[in-house]
Amino acid sequence: MIAPDQAATMAHAGWDVISEGAELADRVIELIQDSLDDHAGASNARA
User: Between the CA of residue 22 and those of 10, 36, 39, 44, 47, what are the distances in Å?
Assistant: First the structure.
């Protein structure tokens, strides 16, 4: 088992790592959604 202070330190470090990439992940998701929307719009225009 891990000491509570060590577990807290590890949890905080993990949170920092996850949070660092959140803005980039949001931007990538936005670009993918826009691309899918554009593709769907083009497909509907051809139908």
Answer: 19, 21, 26, 33, 37
- Please state the pTM of the whole predicted model: 0.55
Chain mean position to CA 46:
33
List of long-range contacts for 29-37, beta carbons under 8 Å, 24+ apart: none
pLDDT in tens, the chain (47 residues): 899 999 999 999 999 998 998 999 999 999 999 999 998 887 777 76
- Which two structure tokens, joined as six digits, stand for 45? 């225009």
Q: Which tokens in the block code for residue 47?
A: 């139908």
Is 10 within 8 Å of 2 (Cβ atoms)?
Answer: yes
